[in-house]
Amino acid sequence: MGRHLTFEIFRFNPEDKDSVPHMETFHLEETERMTLFIALTRIREEQDPSLQFDFCCRAGICGSCAMMINGRPGLACKTLTRELPSEITLLPLPVFKLIGDLSVDTGTWYRAMNEKVESWIHTHRSFDPRAEEQRMDNALAEEIYELERCVECGCCVASCGTANMREDFLGASALNRIARFMMDPRDERSSKEYFEVVGTDEGIFGCMGLLACEDVCPKNLPLQDQLGILRRKMGWQAVKHLFRMG
Amino acid sequence: MQTAAMTRERSFPTRTSAYLDWLQMLTGAGLILFMWSHMVLVASVNLGAGAMNTIARFFEDTYMAQVGGPLIGAAFLLHFVLAARKVPFRTEQQRAIWKHARLIKHTDTWLWLVQAFTAMVILIMGSIHMWTVLTDLPITAAKSAARIQGGFWGVFYLILLPMVELHVGVGFYRIAVKWGLAGRSQRKGLKRFENGLTAMFILIGLITIVRFWTLPI
Questions:
Q1: Are residues A15 and A86 in the same domain?
Q2: Which residues pair with residue A10 across a beta bridge?
Q3: ipTM of the predicted structure?
Q4: A-chain residue closest to B100, CA distance
Q5: Is residue B53 within 8 Å of residue B42, measured between CB atoms?
């Protein structure tokens, strides 16, 4: 016999002018290996079809179902209800634009971020589809892949004190993204160009090191290490310039 | 293909943020080392008033107190100005960080609020302490004891001590994780070490205050 779960869920539909932001209570019997995604689907199917939340892959790959679970950002599909107390509060992610209830628009934010940090390989080489693919050392490819695993769910941004206070702060996923391109030998950008993008208070020097990003990342990306490396690299770049070394 | 970043290469990137961040870290690290040394030196009174007087005389005979004192004061103010760039002074930012901290219940986020709060207290009380001591040289165990036994200064230091040690301890941890000196695998251990260190310095400080309070003048 499962526990009796009580859900406190944020409800608000910005499209409806009569809608007022409020919390609504739902009850559900816990089933074996129940995830928050399963619970929300059951609530929507059995109790309130108007409940809005995002999902797609149900396997922690698409990053759509991020929400504040008892105050902490996390993926609904990866969170088992048995890991939570019987009272569960669900809020939409802060920082991002609210679509309705638990659904937020991370897409627009991430698109703007990727454009801002120019999140693509910068090269002068023209692409020849018939040529053999450029080879890369396996260890390096794995290192790059480790950072590439980001699913852009927005948990790091929602958990970041700086991002919550300052709209212009890039956030951990953007800095992780840049760290990924800095490792890639195919990207021809110089340290100076990378410095332009992240060597500011909107970038790595705005990070206050609260490390909530590291603690909540559902993909367990090495954000603390990458932010540290980036700060040292960018800091060193500025010092080198001071002594006209670079 | 000419991209925006490639075009920008010829322009002059501003490095101010980087230099200010370096300075914030370096003044912070310097002040951490100073505060820990300061605590150990003042605690020499526990070995006897003579021990503390000898050390104080050494620092004055070599002019380290007369010159170093104001320099530490300047570093202290500079560190405040640099770090204050990150402290939310605007109401909406303050509201955002409070709401955020209460919601996510994340220790390191709370520790940053502790740093910001203790910073304000230290700015005022630390300035008063420095002014009082440096305008009344030489430092002697008897003068410090008389001040503390007056009551007001005793309470003053009982408040200032944990404020400084918390700020310094958290700052030490923060510099290490921010600049990547401690990686993911070392973070937990570093935090334990920092907690132990902070507790130890607060204990030494308390013992020292009690010693001053009971020192026969």
A1: yes
A2: A23
A3: 0.87
A4: A161
A5: no
**CA of B12: which chain A residue's CA is closest?**
A196
Q: Best of A165, A198, A213, A243 to disrupt the B interface by mutation (most B CBs within 10 Å)?
A: A165
User: Within an 8 Å CB–CB cutoff, is residue B89 touching chain A?
Assistant: no
> What is the crossing angle of helices B187-214 and B141-149, to 10°?
90
pLDDT value at residue B2: 44
Q: Of A81, A84, A103, nearest to A92 (Cα)?
A: A103
Helix (H) or strand (E) holding B210: helix B187-214
pLDDT at residue B1, rounded to an integer? 40
- Tell me what pLDDT residue A118 has: 92
List, as one string, the DSSP characters of B130-184: HHHHHTTPSP-HHHHHHHHHTSHHHHHHHHHHHHHHHHHHHHHHHHHHHTTSS-G
Q: pLDDT tens for residues B98-146?
A: 999 999 999 999 999 999 999 999 999 999 999 998 888 888 888 888 8
Is B6 an interface residue toward A (CB < 8 Å)? Answer: yes
Range of the domain at A139: 117-242
Strand partners, A90: A9, A69
CATH number for A177: 1.10.1060.10
Give the model confidence (pLDDT) of A173-204 as tens digits: 999 999 999 999 999 998 888 988 899 888 99
Residue contact A235–B22, C-beta within 8 A: yes
Preferred mutation among A124, A205, A225 to probe B, highest tally of B CBs within 10 A? A205
Q: Which of A196, A210, A228 comes nearest B179 by C-beta?
A: A228
Tally of domains in chain A: 2
B150 interfaces chain A, CB cutoff of 8 Å: no
The answer to whether residue A110 sits within a structural domain is no
- Check whether residue A93 and residue A185 sit in a common domain: no
Domain B19-214: give its CATH code.
1.20.1300.10
- Residue spans of chain A under pLDDT 50: none
User: What is the torsion angle, in degrees rounded to the nearest 10, for the CA atoms of residue A134, residue A136, residue A142 and residue A146?
Assistant: -60
Report B:94-133 residues touching A (Cβ under 8 A).
96-97, 99-101, 103-106, 108-109, 112
Q: How far apart are CA B193 and CA B176, in angstroms?
A: 12
Half-sphere exposure of B50 (CA within 13 A, CB side): 0
For residue A27, being part of any structural domain is answered with yes
Question: Which pLDDT value is given to residue A10?
Answer: 97
- Distance, first Cα to last Cα, chain B: 81
Interchain pair B184, A232: CB under 8 A: no
The residues, any chain, with a CB within 8 Å of residue A74's CB and separated by 6 or more, are A66, A67, A155, A216, A218
Contact A210 B177 (CB under 8 A): no
